[in-house]
Specification:
homodimer; alpha/beta; 434 Repressor (Amino-terminal Domain); Rossmann fold; six-stranded parallel beta sheet; 12 helices; DNA-binding
DNA sequence: ATGACGAATGGAAAGGTTTTCACATTGCAA
DNA sequence: TTGCAATGTGAAAACCTTTCCATTCGTCAT
C-alpha cells in the first residue's frame, strides 16, 4: 500500500541502508546516489513511517502538554505558544486536559509506554513528590505559577514583583488608602502577589487594614467578585484605590463603582492583573499587568527542546517579564 | 532497561506469544497460565510498548484535533469535550493549532507518516476539495459550523434554526421593530443565522429594514460591536429589540444602551448567541442561545470512534441541540 | 482402538525503520 | 609497488510487538 524503504531501494537500485542514510541527511553518501534516491522517493511518494522510526531509535518526537483546564484563557494562550514552537522544532503535540490525581496517572502511562519524550506541565498541583521521579524518565518543564521549594525547571512570571509594582504604582499616584481584592491562599500566585503588594506598602509605613481588604477564594469568579466589591465599596471608609488579583475582579469593581456612583478613576483607581481580552468590555478600560502567556509557552518549549537534546539549560526558575498596561481606570489620588 | 515481552515470558516460563495473548485478553489461554503471566507482568512492571504495538498492528491509537485558534473559548470548550471522550476510549490526543493552508499540510503529513488514525477538524475552512481525499486515508469528522454542500460527517448546531427561534421569541414578545447586529458573509454560521432570522420575520410580514440592521464583519470583536451598536441605537428610529450574532455583540449593545439612557429590557430587548461565561460581566445579564460545545466535542469523538472501528455511522450532518437561556435583557414590547 | 476435533501453546515471520559491521573501492603517501 | 586511510555501500541485526501456522495433548464419538 504505502511505499517503504524497500520500494525506494529497489526503485533507486540501492540498499535500504542507503535510502535510510539519504532520508536522514547522512554525509556518508555520494551526491549521485543521493540524487537517485531522492528521485525514487519523489516518484513513489515515500514518507518514512514515524512509528517504525521511533521504535528503532527508541525515542519519540511527540511531547505532552498537560493542562488543568483548556477553557481557561491563560492556559489556552500558553498552549498556543507551545504549539507554535513545537511546530517549528518538528514535535507533535500530545495534549491532555487533566487535573489532580489523573495528572499523575496519565503522566506515568505516557512515560511507561514511551509515547512521548518530554512534557510541559501547566500549573501542576502543589506538593508533588512524584515529579522528580517522573523527571528522571521523561524530560519535564513546568510552566505556570511558581511553586517555591520545587526544584524543577519552570517558567513563570514573578508574582511577588507584580504585587510590589502594583503597590509602587498606586503609591506614586499619591494613594494611601489602598485596598486589595483577591485570595490569599487559594493558589501560589495569589499568595505571592499579595505578599509583594503588602511588603511594598509596608515600606511606606502602610500596614494592612482589614477594612480595605476583601478576600474571595474564587479569584476568577465574576459574580463572587461583584458581591465582594459591592460590600467593600459600600463602606463609608472605602479605599481610594484597589489592587485586584485578576482583571475579572477588577472589572467587577469598576462595574460596582459605576453602579454606586463612584467615578473611576477620579474617586477610585482600579488596578488588575492579566490583560484579559475581555477587559475591554467594561468602561473605563482597566489598567492591568499583562502576562506574556504565549511567550511563556514558547520559552517552555524551547527549554524542553534543549533539555531533551542534552544541551545546557538554566537551572530552576526562568522568569517571564510582565508589563504594566496603563489604561483608564487609574489616576492620581485627589 | 524496560521490561519486554521476552522478560515476562522468561519469568513466567511461557512463550512471548502467550504473553501477548494475555496482554490482549485473548480467551484462548488457560486461567492458570494467564495468572502466571500476570504475576510476572506485575513483578517486572511490564508495560507494552505502544510504538511497537502500533507498528505491528499498523494502526494508531492517537487522533488529531485541528483547531484554528485554541484561545477562542468555543473551540477550547469543544476540545475539552473531545478530550473527555478520548480518554474514555483510550485514545491519545494530538493537537494542532493551525489555520488555512497549514491545516492541509499538517493533516497530510499526519496521514502519511501514519501518526494518527483519525482526526477531528474544528471549523475547517470553506472550499475544501481536498477533504474527501484525506478522508479516504484517515477517518475524519468535522465539528464546527455547518458547511452546506460538504458531504463530510459533521457535528454542528442548526444555525438557521437559532435564527428562526430568535425571531420567533422576539415576535412572541410583541416586538415588530427588530434589528440585527452581526455579519452576513464572514462565516457560514452568521449567514445561516441571519437567513433563518429574516425568513421567520418575513413570515409575519416583516421585511428587512436597512435602518434596523448593523453589519460588522468582525462578529466577535467587542470594540467594533460597540461602535456599530452606538451608531444603531443613536438613531431616532432605533429598534425595540435586537438580535445579535454573538454574546460579545449583545454585551456591547447592552452597554451602549446603558450609556444612552435606554432602559433594558423595558425600552430595548437584546438577544445574543453563545452563553459566553463572560456574559455575566454586563448587567442586565444577556438572554442568549447557548451552544453545547462540550457536548459537540464528545459527539464528534464518539462518531470518530465508530467510524474508525468500522461501525455504522449516521451519514452527513449530526445536529447538536442549542437552548434559549432567558435572562434579564429581553422583555415584552411596550 | 482409532480418528477427529478442540484447546492450549510455541515457533517464527512480519511490520518499517536505523545502525553496526564488514566489505569493496578509491586515492594517496611512503 | 605496497600499505593504509577514507569513502561509499550492502547485509543483517535490532527495536518490541502481534499473529499465522504448526504442534502437542487430551477428550470424545465412532
Amino acid at each position: 500500500m504505502m511505499a517503504t524503504v524497500f520500494d525506494v531501494a529497489k526503485e533507486a537500485g540501492v540498499s535500504i541502508a542507503t535510502v535510510s542514510r539519504v532520508m536522514n541527511n547522512s554525509p556518508r553518501v555520494s551526491a549521485a546516489t543521493a540524487e537517485a534516491v531522492r528521485a525514487a522517493v519523489e516518484k513513489l511518494g515515500y514518507v518514512p513511517n514515524q512509528q517504525a522510526r521511533n521504535l528503532r531509535k527508541n525515542e519519540s518526537n511527540s511531547i505532552l502538554v498537560m493542562i488543568p483546564d483548556v477553557t481557561k484563557l491563560s492556559y489556552a494562550r500558553t498552549l498556543a505558544g507551545i504549539n507554535e514552537k513545537a511546530l517549528e522544532y518538528g514535535y507533535t503535540l500530545l495534549m491532555n486536559n487533566a487535573v489532580g490525581e489523573e495528572q499523575e496517572i496519565v503522566l506515568n502511562r505516557m512515560a511507561e509506554t514511551q509515547r512521548c519524550a518530554g512534557a510541559i506541565l501547566l500549573n501542576v498541583m502543589l506538593g508533588d513528590e512524584w515529579l522528580p521521579d517522573v523527571d528522571s524518565r521523561l524530560s519535564l518543564v513546568l510552566c505556570s505559577e511558581y511553586v517555591s521549594g520545587c526544584n524543577m525547571l519552570s517558567v513563570s512570571v514573578d508574582d511577588r514583583k507584580i504585587g510590589r509594582e502594583a503597590a509602587d504604582y498606586l503609591l506614586k499616584l499619591g494613594h494611601r488608602r489602598i485596598g486589595y481584592i483577591g485570595s490569599c491562599v487559594s493558589c501560589s500566585s495569589a499568595f505571592e502577589r499579595r505578599e509583594g503588594f503588602l511588603s511594598r506598602l509596608s515600606e511606606d509605613g502602610i500596614e494592612p487594614d482589614v477594612r480595605l481588604v476583601a478576600y474571595t477564594d474564587v479569584s476568577t469568579n465574576y459574580r463572587e467578585g461583584y458581591r465582594v466589591a459591592r460590600e467593600l465599596l459600600s463602606r463609608p471608609d472605602r479605599p481610594g484605590a484597589i489592587f485586584c488579583y485578576s482583571d475579572i475582579l477588577a472589572m467587577a469593581a469598576v462595574t460596582v463603582a459605576g453602579e454606586l456612583g463612584i467615578r473611576v478613576p477620579e474617586q477610585l483607581s482600579v488596578l488588575g492583573v492579566d490583560n484579559n481580552v475581555y477587559a475591554e468590555m467594561v468602561h473605563p478600560y482597566v489598567t492591568s499587568f499583562s502576562q506574556p502567556f504565549e511567550e511563556m509557552g514558547r520559552r517552555a518549549m524551547e527549554l524542553l527542546h534543549l533539555k531533551m537534546t542534552g544541551q545546557t539549560i538554566p537551572t530552576g526558575r526562568v522568569i517571564a517579564e510582565h508589563e504594566l498596561k496603563i489604561q483608564e481606570s487609574t489616576g492620581p489620588a485627589l
